[in-house]
């Protein structure tokens, strides 16, 4: 947990809602100068209230679904804006009584006391592109639900499910309709297929726009990510835009925690009580690296056997996939941080260590390029990005997780 350090004379806490916001403004000594409710989120009225203190003021609000407009308005007005982590704030200032007036006052007190757990304010100019990417992901999930519904209906009537054809859905639709004799079930099937076709058209249009903008704005990072096993065009865009600026993560541990790939621990009096914090972080990054791990394990001829050995050692498929996802996330962090290409040899070494562990027989380390039948090349001959002494995964990436 990282706390924001306020350096201004006046601090303002805002309990923000959809149609109103409760404002509490204090000086450094904790004297309340403004404590009122503003209807309809009238920001112009808010600026009039804080006008005597605007020259040295910090504004703070909790992270909720409607904070975008407030952050942008404060930035346009030249005000310092701090986004507070709602869950951490709740843990800090929990009280018996809770209402908007108390919440805004507590935010102001925490801000002047440098106890605000700060969240990242995603740049406003990049939010529309990230929102479009999340919309595309939502459409894909909705289309998958419809496809699963059709498969379930086929299984309910003891028909072998037919794999959907892409991009031309006509053969698949004609086959399903020809085996459906009831007119009502035919109508239901046609309705679902119409929705699937509509999602196909929308997803294709969105993907074309996303690919064009990504290649224009972030061509280098986009190309680097696609060199990682299991990460293709769509997962690469998801990882790229959900991360934003990689420099906001001081260490790889912070990045893994944000990706929901590590859990926090609970200990008291020297005794380990359990784990916590599994849902703290970015769910889209957790999904993306999980998908990348599954694809790399399934499709890659070197990572696949090593991941299966790790699964046999751990006795749990999901734990093995999580370990592989962590290794891929560490690689992505150092690649984006150091602007270096993916180093597959380091990933293979890390998986070999995890798969065989200490005290177990381990085969001689295999060279990636020899297994692929390629001639060894120097690190400086890469056409994507020059290598540095700190390789793509970096030395810390080889430490056991």
Give an account of the 3D structure.
This protein is α+β, with helices and mostly antiparallel strands and 401 residues long. The protein has three domains: 3-119, Nucleotidyltransferase, domain 5 (2-Layer Sandwich), CATH 3.30.420.10; 127-217; 233-398, no CATH class. The chain contains 15 helices and nine strands. The protein has helices at residues 43-50, 68-76, 86-92, 100-112, 127-156, 170-178, 183-217, 219-225, 233-243, 252-258, 283-299, 303-314, 317-338, 344-356, 368-372; strands at 3-4, 10-16, 20-27, 32-39, 57-62, 80-84, 116-119, 264-268, 271-276. The chain has a seven-stranded mixed β-sheet. The chain has a two-stranded antiparallel sheet with strand order 8-9. Strand 2 (10-16) and strand 3 form a beta hairpin. Helix 5 packs antiparallel against helix 7, helix 5 (127-156) crosses helix 9 (233-243) and helix 12 (303-314) runs parallel beside helix 14 (344-356). Residues 363-369 and 375-401 have low confidence and may be disordered.
